[in-house]
Amino acid sequence: MRGLSGSSARLAALLFVAIFVPTLAMLGFMSYASAQTLASQRATLVTELRDELVAEYDGGGPGSLTGAIRDRLRYNPLGEEVLSYRSAKGAVLVGNLGTWPAGLGSRSHWLTIRLQRPGDRQSRPVVLLETVLPDHSTLLTGHVASGSAELNAANQWAFLLALLVAGPVSLGLAFVLLRVIERRVARIALIAERVGEGDLSPRVELGQGDDAFARLGRGFNAMLDKIEALVLELRLVTDGLAHDLRSPVTRLQSVIERAAARQVDPEAGAALETAQQEAASLQAMLTTAIQISRAEAGIGRDRFAPAELATVLDDLVEIYGPLAEESGFTIAAEAPPGLVLPVHRELLGQALGNLIENALRYAEGGSRIALGAAREDGEVAIVVADDGPGIAAGQRHEALRRFGRLDPSRHAAGSGLGLSLVEAAARLHGGRIELEDARPGLLVRVILPDGGKAPASPR
């Protein structure tokens, strides 16, 4: 059994207390109630005995009462009944007690004391009731509480045994309830994790009841239905943007190119060339923004295919090698053979290409760019590192933000979408990116699940 987290341990303790404390209270009440019931029954016997003898006194006076007591004690003087009758002067007239118990007062309720009658081997608990009669004589009636000590001991042992059983049972029930709750929460958490990876198809299974988990499941499913509808709408919008906006920008580029070809004025030609560059930048920015939106919507997982990362990195070195050499950089890749992952090769290549272009553009004073891939603790890390100035730790969050620019004046080239595309591509593959200090320079780690733990395509 896996260990309990802090919150799970607290919940288990709470469930244990909620089960064990009422059980303990019930056992204690049952033990107390049984003892009280037995004591009440004995008190009733004593009261009935007193009433019967008082009736003898009322009918025939002290003589009749004395005779009735003798008749009761004649055949069983050491029986369960305890009787004694004394005159108003304090002389014991009849009874099975040798002496009048000291410390008794006139009482209208019963009490229990220990007495030893003549002939008894030891003192025994007796329920007594003292009654003062009209002639100031006193009648003492009682009943031996036979078996009280044995019953109390049995009750104590039964209570202890029940306590020993109730403790483990309560603990077991607490863990069973905890596991039931954890399993139901874990199923919802698993669905939430898959949704976070972009798979909007799973839903919470709903039972027939209307408990809190059923209501949570219905609300969760309704939320997923809404998200799925919004994502579908986003796909339609992005596809429309790809068709409706690319074409005008492409036509604009063509018009500028034709105008530049016919222009003989050097100043006008320079202006048209600048306009053409800006149009190309706009086209690239639009394309990148659409790619990010599509990746975040989970579009493109149907194009995943196994690819050897060493080959992917070598292709990037071959493509960017001449440009790196012109910019004064060396570029090299190192990855173990046989490291194969199912990836969207075109998107992953473009994302890594963005990292290389960023290094060429911003790693001023640097001289090398290193690419690499390796397995790390059940994941695969693809690394792009340079030896330029890097990015300060406090600015890395801004660098990952869409359209985030580290140059407040925004005079530097770039759209602010390069790292956003890398992050979107990593998430499409079920991974993430991390920015670290290469000492010197920037080290970008694209971390993907090993073995192709990529989410399933949305339905």
From TrEMBL:
TM annotation in the entry: 157-178
Record field: catalytic activity: ATP + protein L-histidine = ADP + protein N-phospho-L-histidine
Keyword ATP-binding: no
Family matches, as Gene3D superfamilies: 1.10.287.130, 6.10.340.10, Histidine kinase-like ATPase, C-terminal domain
Catalytic activity, EC: 2.7.13.3
Domain (HAMP): residue spans on this chain: 179-232
Histidine kinase domain segment(s): 240-452
Main location (coarse class): membrane
Listed InterPro entries: HAMP_dom, HATPase_C_sf, HATPase_dom, His_kinase_dom, HisK_dim/P_dom, HisK_dim/P_sf, Sig_transdc_His_kin-like_C, TCS_sensor_his_kinase
PROSITE patterns: HAMP (PS50885), HIS_KIN (PS50109)
Enzyme class: transferase
Molecular function in Gene Ontology: phosphorelay sensor kinase activity
Keyword Cell inner membrane included in the entry's annotation: no
Annotated GO CC locations: plasma membrane
Localization annotation: Membrane
Keyword annotations from UniProtKB, A to Z: Kinase, Membrane, Phosphoprotein, Transferase, Transmembrane, Transmembrane helix, Two-component regulatory system
Name used for this protein in its record: histidine kinase
